[in-house]
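not sure who needs this but someone in the group chat was asking about SusC/RagA family TonB-linked outer membrane protein from Flavobacterium cupreum so here u go. i didnt clean anything up, its just raw.
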Amino acid sequence: MTSKKVRTALLFSLKTSLKKKLAALFLIASVLDVQSGNDSKKLKTANKQVVTITHEISNQQKIHGIVKDHTGLPLIGVTIVVNDKQQATTTDFDGKFEITVTNGDVLSFSFLGFKTKKIKITDQVLLHVTLEPSTKELDELILVGYGKTSRNKITGAVTKVDTKVLQNTQNVSFADALIGVVPGLFVQENFASPDAPPSILLRGVGSISASTEPMIVVDGVQMPRSGLGAFSLNAADIKEISILKDAASTSIYGSKGTNGVIIVTTKRGNRNAGLQVSFNTRLGLKKADESFTNDLMNGSQKLDYEESLGFYKSNPALLQKRRNSNTDVNWADLLLKNEINRENDISFSGGSDKINYYTSVTYNNVENIFGSHYKRYTATTRVDFDWGTRFKVGFSGNFGNVNEEDKRTIGSPFSNAFLLNPWLTVFDENGDPLRLLDVGNSSGIPYNPLYVRDNTNVSANRKNIGGSVNLTYTPFRWLSLNGVLGANYNSTKSSSFEKVIVNGGVLSYANGDNNNYTGTLTATIAKKFKKHNFDIVMGNEFNEYETNSLSVFARDFNSDAIQTISAAKTVSTLSERKSHAGSLSYFSRLNYSFDNTYNLSLSCRRDGSSRFGDNHKYANFWSVGTSWNIHDDFFKESMHVSSLKLRASIGTSGNDFIGDFASQSLYGYRSQINYAGSAVPYLTRGENADLTWEKNNNKNIGLDYGLFRNRISGTIDYYIRDTKDLLNSKPLPLTSGFTELISNVGDFRNEGIEISLHLLNFRNKHFSWTSDFNIAFNKGTVLSLSNEKDLLINSGSTVFKEGSAIRSFYITDWAGVNPKTGFNQYRSKDGKLTDYNTNRTGSNTNEINGLRQVVNKTSIPKYHGGLTNTFQFRNLDMSFLISYAGGHYVLNKGIYNLYNNPAFNQHVTVAAAWKNPGDQADLAVRQVYLARPTSAMVSDYKASSQFLQDASYIKWKNITLGYTLNKIVSDKIGIQRLRIYVQGQNLLTKTAVSYIDPEYATASGGIGLSSSLLRGYSFGLNANF
């Protein structure tokens, strides 16, 4: 205990008895001796009497200070936090601050681009703090092929994804959360099923018939492209995602990395940590945009229109009957529901000094807009432990199970909502759906889709079981030996049964499974000599694939009671397929860095694949990459340039994702070819022993920059991606005995620029605002196709033609309606207009097809990207994403019938079609019913540029608003962290595409009435214990 003299004035509150004894007591501040103890203060008066008062005098004090950088300049906006709690402040424009503290408190000083500094408070009242520049961002480890490397040493085009974006999506697949986030990565959602894999393109289309999607690697194991696979991963289990784009980063994967690589690392437990529990729950709602019903004819309008076409000339009583029923059905209300999505997941993690573990379980329940039910269960576990001092063992296991009950109808429910006539009687007098619709003398759908939906059982089950074992041996600090063995099993079983009362009983059954095995052995050497850093990786890898499938289609059942193939009278289709393929690879990479300023990367890989002929089973791939940290040479003392790095790379990769037997002769069976009554095999396709690999020659130059202490940072990349020896079927002369042969037919080029920009717009102790913008431009061109300028390779509504854009549209060029005749006009290849008259006596297919030509418009976006803004105010957080794409088109096949087939409901504008000579109209003359079979009604419309629509769009993709409970409150209720949030998705879309979400357009350029703009809203909670 110590004593000190102080001058003060004190006011005491004493008990009555004590007051009497001290009535004459006067405290003289000048001679007051205050002795400090734990819980009491002893006051000695001038007459030596001592009064002990139990009271704790606060030792809080206000301190002042200034924060400067290493050059002595004041730093504005430095965050200063007391004891890592919520008490905080920031420096002003002069770098000064003041804050109230208690002796023993620890102040933490943090600022972007500088190392965090901590100072313990004793008796200081004035602080002078200097922050040193931080190389944390450059030293940050980034996932690359077969390892990690620091951002400072990367020579290739690699994007690390902030996994916070995974919180901002309602989709089951983690890939959907990457929409508009990664420059150069174009992701399209798949509407078919909640777990259906999305379509992914990285730096354009790189093949005609082989796969064009990036490879996905999860925890070092290559995932299959079919089945659940990587897309069944729970987003909450993902720790890191890296996107590898250029040759320097992908060539080490050889033929597997030709379309880029997505590397995913999942979460694992922490060492020396107690049990940690994380629980997430979300309830989501999606609603289809039904505003299209405003553009459709109602019951009265449709009957008037049919009457004008002469539908009822021979049966006027039927028209009157339909008018008297006064029916006006809104099919959208009957067929489309609100989608409800419930998701719950829980994880457990922890560890000791020798072992760590992570386990999670997820349940997802979706009832979609068509009433189909989808249930997904996933589980994952990760265990790592040290075996002695030199061995580390890791185990990963995944399980996914999906049960789906599909409410199938005749046609798409969404299409039916458009096309079914509004005057139809849907229900009987008891309110039950009628079996057949009274279509009368109109063509159209005779079955009631509501009845079919209630009397058809469609179910599917998909399973995914995967696992891997990882063993690492470190005999020396500079040498690490690693082995990974992984396996993945996918199975799909689906069946559907239409009851006998619907269509005589129809059964379809499909069963398929695939097994994938992979093994990798690597040796990593890391040495440092003064300013020289070497990192060498050498390895060997094998992959093996097995696929089996069986499908059956049977019909004509006597009863619904026995739904087996043997109970059917007719088995019309039976198909079985088995395949087996494999690959073997050797690879190596050398990374060299001098003084962390000059970096060089060399890689090579030799791949062997069973899919190619004997003459080309093996191929070699390589890359060279270099980078120069210009900042270290010229801007080390600059206050404006925080980082500046120039990158360049060149190299090759390949593609073997074609049919397992593409190079081999194929045999088939046909009942007409038999011997003694038994079918015998016959040759259906010849061998091509010279079939070789598709090869990608990639060139990339990039710039990474950071300005003003990295308040502004980003990347710029320019690339040329040349694809050689494209794989596809090539037509053969009839004298060969075959129609086609899979060959190497041509070359592509994709050329583009990618730009990303990160802005720290504002930050103080309570509020921060950051923005992330990216845009990618890509131009894809067909350079050659077997040296034949007129060769066309069809792919849906688009083609590949030498000299044209990749996936250019091949359609008739509509030139409007002839005001004299009322017929559609088409522009021929020589520019002349052809007035196409309806040929009502026969087929007009050849006539109109003769006018088809390649239109200089493509289905592949010429640019795409996104803008993300993130806000943080105290415990509130908000973020939103704007995504966009443009320069591409879509052939909107979905609206054909709305303008062209009066047997279905029609768009209200068809009433304004051409009627008399001189009319200026956008729609040709409507057909007249000529009292002949409806099948003879021939439309004068064919797929043409009339329905080719600009698919450019800008979309308010999502917005998230969250609140994290105050730590003091959460501690009291025993929760480490609690966050609640609300989300909105697809809130607003601006596009010229009619009725359909442009994101669902296929790469082949077509889109149908199968999907709508779906707006989503959800509420969720994240809790950590």
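also The CA atoms of residues 819 and 933 lie 30 Å apart. if thats useful
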